[in-house]
Amino acid sequence: MTGAAHDFGFDHVPETDQSFENALAKARAGERLTVDDGVELITTGTDREGIDAARKELVLEAADRRRAEMVGDDVTFVANLNNNVTTACNTGCLFCNFKNTAHLFESDSDADHGGFTKTPAESRDIVADAVEMGVYEVTSVSGLHPALVLDEEHREILEAHDNPAAEVNYKPPEAYDTDPASYAEQLSAMSADGAHVHSMTPEEAHHAKRGTDWSYEEVYRRLADAGLASAPGTAAEILVPEVREVICPGKIGTDEWVAGMEGAMEAGLDVTATIMYGHVETEKHRVLHLDVIRDLQDRYGGITEFVPLSFIHQNTPLYDRGLVTGGASDDEDELMVAVARLYLDNVDHIQSSWVKFGNAKALKLLNCGADDLMGSILSEEITKRVGGGFGEFRSFDDYVDMITAIGRRPVERSTDYRTRRPIDIDDGPHGPTLGPRADGTPLLDGRRGPATADD
Ligand SMILES: C[S@@+](CC[C@H](N)C(=O)[O-])C[C@H]1O[C@@H](n2cnc3c(N)ncnc32)[C@H](O)[C@@H]1O
Ligand SMILES: Nc1c(NC[C@H](O)[C@H](O)[C@H](O)CO)[nH]c(=O)[nH]c1=O
Ligand SMILES: N[C@@H](Cc1ccc(O)cc1)C(=O)O
Ligand code: SF4
Fold first, then answer.
1. Residue 382 in contact with ligand 3 by CB distance below 6 A
2. Which residues pair with 422 in a beta bridge?
3. Does the pLDDT at position 375 exceed 80?
4. Cα 99 off chain centre by
5. What are phi and psi of 231, to 5 degrees?
6. Chain centre to alpha carbon of residue 256
7. Could you tell me if 55 and 338 are in contact, meaning their C-beta atoms sit under 8 angstroms apart?
8. What are the residues facing 149 on neighbouring strands?
9. How far is it, in rounded angstroms, from Cα 223 to Cα 293?
């Protein structure tokens, strides 16, 4: 926990009855790891202060070998676009600078908040342009706007409350400059041109069922009927209550996050899973988090990939209030990816996120256990707004250059990884072929991605 500026008095500290050597031997033999094993590997031994460089190399090597055994040497990526609907959110997570307080979006506020809300028509136009360019997937994650509801039936239920703003975090669309309409209308707009819509984190699904007794399965079924194809497992952060109390006291708890993911899988959707690490948590919390994910996957099996999201600290309340002094170190990033690969023996794909790591480190992580290099993205907002400086898109030629530079084979994939196309590296320039309108034409030729709508 290099970033933590305080002793938070956590109950979970990295102490074990295991030795580093035994944990490494189990990892190399492909045995299922315990939490203590994971802690020994991610700390390079609790018997030593700090990270031991030689031991770290042994852990990375074991993870790289496991990656090769599980999924081979291909490096995958997807042609995708981020289309986030709104930045309005009152949840107040202390690591997030994506959101803006929702009352700033009200018609009677003249504050310049710098955020946005899109109407379904605007979302549709943005996605249609991207699909025309060859994009396969649209990833959409949004603030919990008080006017956003699941569908019209949900709106009626919320409006029937005596004081919906106080009781169920609901305000009518008329109160705002821009009406985001319902999740169902947004999903229907984003899927209209044939894109795979990857959206609705468990936190958003919780917002989409507030004030009702609907199950997560029911909610995700309705969302799937409206056009949702798979769900991102963000909002996970660190799935240990004592950490959530510090960094996101307004968010759903660990059990609720798990229930949301179960509901999505019960509704037949694929999901991803994430961890956001490198802030106040200890190495023990990181491994406890992996244990929650492995257990969920044992029971449901619908997690297609695990995405380690390294905390970007600039412009966040955690940093501004002096609770952290920075994010994870390079060693911590490498060990997070490696131990995720070794611990999650039931999740095939580990993603290296260039948005969070930049190109050089993202490539290095492909030799530490990761096998997927995310997506073209075209317009990235969450990391950019928080101060991350690694840009907003990667073209297919960028992907081919980067992946061949480390001696691996670039493969375009579908969101669910079930369709793959190895890229013929001699046949450039390269473009997507799996999207509904993709014909191999390059996604971008040095120009910026499609425009985004702003309030
Ligand atoms: C911004 S939220 C949007 C979706 C929805 N409001 C939710 O919380 O699920 C999506 C994810 O972005 C990630 N994120 C936000 N701020 C971040 C930061 N400073 N560094 C790294 N990841 C961050 C978190 O993991 C969060 O769950
Ligand atoms: N790692 C990040 C992602 N990953 C999402 C992927 O690009 C893709 O949607 C997923 O692999 C499913 O196909 N998205 C972000 O916005 N930011 C990231 O850091
Ligand atoms: N959009 C999230 C990350 C994300 C989204 C979807 C995923 O499947 C995975 C990760 C961010 O920028 O932090
Ligand atoms: S992480 Fe999501 S819920 Fe939390 S403040 Fe940011 S947008 Fe809102």
1. yes
2. 411
3. yes
4. 16
5. -120, 135
6. 17
7. no
8. 182
9. 23
**Is 391 a residue whose pLDDT tops 80?**
no
CB of 137 closer than 6 A to ligand 2? Answer: yes
Domain limits for position 110: 69-422
Mean pLDDT of the chain: 94
In a domain, 452, yes or no: no
Q: What is the mean pLDDT of the segment spanning 1-27?
A: 90
Would residue 394 count as lying in a domain?
Answer: yes
Please give the DSSP secondary-structure letter assigned to residue 104: G
Least distant ligand from the CA of 250: 4
Span 200-228, mean pLDDT?
Answer: 98
Looking from the CA of residue 203, the nearest atom of ligand 4 is 3
pLDDT of 443 over the 60 cut:
yes
- Is the CB of 274 within 6 Å of ligand 3? yes
What mean pLDDT comes out for the span 159-177?
97
Q: Which atom of ligand 2 is nearest to the CA of 375?
A: 7
Q: How many A from CA of 143 to the centre of ligand 1?
A: 9
Beta bridge partners of 276: 309
Residue pair 184/199 in contact by the 8 Å Cβ criterion? no
Q: Give the pLDDT confidence of 174-199 residue by residue, as tens digits.
A: 999 999 999 999 999 999 999 999 99
What whole-number percentage of the chain has pLDDT above 70? 96
3-state secondary structure of 312: coil
Q: Is residue 62 part of a domain?
A: no
CATH number of domain containing 83? 3.20.20.70
Whether 454 is in a domain gets the answer no
Report the distance separating Cα 247 and Cα 285, nearest Å.
Answer: 13
What is the value of ipTM here, to two decimals? 0.94
Please identify which residue in the block is written with the tokens 């997030």: 96
Whether 309 is in the pocket of ligand 3, judged by its Cβ within 6 Å, is yes
Give the β-pairing of 80-82 and 409-413.
unpaired
Q: Is the CB of 374 under 6 A from ligand 2?
A: yes
* Structural domain total, the chain: 1
The ligand 1 atom nearest the CA atom of 203: 9
What is the model's pLDDT at position 37?
Answer: 98
Taking CB atoms and a 6 Å cutoff, what residues make up the pocket around ligand 4? 89, 91-93, 96, 98-99, 143-144, 203
In order, the DSSP letters of 125-142 are: HHHHHHHHHT--EEEE--
How far is the centre of ligand 2, averaged over its atoms, from the C-alpha of 205 (Å)? 18
What's at 59, amino acid-wise? V
Q: How far is the CA of 97 from the centre of ligand 1 (A)?
A: 9
Q: Which ligand is nearest to the CA of 352?
A: 2
Residue 451 has a pLDDT of 37
Of 47-61, 407-421, 439-453, where does mean pLDDT reach its minimum?
439-453
- State the distance from the centre of ligand 1 to the C-alpha of 260, rounded, in angstroms: 16
**Average pLDDT for 443-448:** 57
